[in-house]
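Think of the structure tokens as a kind of shorthand, similar to the way a musician reads notation: each symbol stands for something richer, in this case the local conformation of the backbone. In the example below we present two proteins back to back. Begin with the first one, reading the sequence and then the tokens, and try to describe in your own words what changes along the chain.
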Amino acid sequence: MKAPMLCLCIQAFANACRICLACSLLAWPTPLFSNEPPCLVVNGPTGDPALTQANFDWTKRLIQNLESRNIHCKVLNIDHWARANKMFRDGTADVLFPEIVGDPEQPGVTGRPIALTHGFVIFTRHKTGPLNHIDELAGLNVGTIRGRYYPEELRNISGIQIEPGNSLEQNMHKLALGRIDATIEYQSDGVKLLNRLGLRAMIHHGAEFGVQELAYRFHQSDQGMRLRHHFDEAAQELIDNGTYHQLFTGTTQRMVTD
């Protein structure tokens, strides 16, 4: 065989080897890192442990539904809203629940409403109240929870002294001891906690205000929009087949179907 012909044969053989190698790499399954799911859902706390658990169970059922759509997620319960919000803001968490629809302080976008809040009330000691409007808090020391959503008016009224705390239970104890003058909380969560702590005789509340919608919150990105689409579809399916009503009946949740 002449030298030029030999060179051409060698080059053709080398090209064929490259093609075969490329095809074999494409056919080889890509490793899956099962300990790093593509989606992490963080559930924040409520003032009612039973409702927090119901929210967790609901999210687990929703995630099971997402598996059929090839969306793989896991869910974590986080005890403090400040930590839950930080996990979402720094990208550790892909989804946050339950979140106020239209909260201007939070990044990202919310999906379809899952529940309604019961509205806020102002809790005070009996000798102080009842107080029915946020503007009545001017000049008072008001306990709040770090990382929690509150009506915008609370930040806009001058003279209100905000004292952040870690939990509603901590704020109720501080209120009973006179270390703060008032605290704001959803009526159902606050009343249930007062009953559990045995403080109903010392603390009461005024009229309800500020009912809001609650939903899952997603990052404003391509992946976030994809997750929102699938979460919304899965949630609607669970509402339609009765799972939603089954999980939240008997809890303090105010359901969107009521």
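Once you have a description of the first chain, move to the second and do the same.
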Amino acid sequence: MTKKPATATVRSVDSAPGKSPHFIGRAARTLGSLTRETLATIRAGSSMTYQKGEDWIVGAKRAVYGLAVARMLIAIMFIGTALSNWSTRNYTFGPGVAWSGQIQFPASSFATIWPFSLVTGAAHNSTAVTLVFVSLIVCSILFGIGYRSRLVMFPLFVLWVGMVNMDLYVQDQSDNLSRMAMISMFFTAPAQVWSVDAWRRRRFVENPNDNFLRKLWRFQPVLPTWVTNIFHNFAIVIIGAQLCMVYASGGLFKAGGLPWQNGTAIYAPIHTRQFGTWPVLTDIVTAWGPMVALGTIGTVLVQVAFPLMLLRRGTRILALVTIFGFHVVIAVLMGLPWFSVSMLAFDAIFIRDITWAGMGAAVVAAWRRTGQKSVSRSPGGGASGADGRAGGVLAGSGRAAPPPESS
């Protein structure tokens, strides 16, 4: 007897009658899985960000070369301000300023705060004003070369703030920025490199048996490295944030003015009698209208976008080059060199240490090559010339050294 093959009927679970698909359950499980993966990614990213941030803050001192450049330029600004006002010091800052009422009724609160009041009180006597100027110049020289920088900074800060507050009518915004930035510099290591203090640190070997004062006098580490790194790097962040706020707020303020919107704002100031120090050069620079418009609008755009342009190397270079040109124009065409030097001093922290070290190595190599040429040209300098060539090979093979070990 032949049996008929049974026909198997296969039904899927989803197509079974009376049963609906479990989309809600599957969606809930999928959402839960995605949520867990997202949270894990956020935790991993947060942990990595924290580790990098901690390493940046604690690992080593940042912008030590840029801060050394800032130290030198700030000292140049102090010296230049004192020397350019030397012949009129008694009229601008001394007894002659009584006509403005600044001596009897000082408009600045710093004039009544000790120890700045000691300096502002010198305005009553011409000899005392001269002593303030001389002291400021001496302290600025010591600070610029980085000699006893930590000790010199205190009298330098008092002398500078006290002097500029003798007469508010001759102040500008760079004086305010230099005052705020120098407060932050107290917590940094401005003489870590390119200074006499750095040379003294290499000269005197650290002795663990030396007391606190002896170590401080010889510029040796007196605090744990990680502690000084934290203070230094946070101070660098504060200085950078202040500069970003200055540029961004200045750009936004400019953007609200009609001359800046029309592209003609930079034309008028440099043609006035007060600021037009080089009329012929000013006429040449502003002869082409599109260049004036480009400079005006470009200045606003770069200033407003300055904080964001620092995030990428290419845009950071563009921003710094534009800002540098902006301050060169102010220094030359508007007769405000010390304002520009002060602003450029703190802009130096945005340039990487490896870049500054490379430029320093290039300058040293060029200096050595110049010395070798002079030796080789001297009469009877055969042996010296050979030594010079050997020295040239050694000097030419030198590379930009990384920042020294922080302390």
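Compare your description with these statements about the second chain. Residues 62-222 form one domain.
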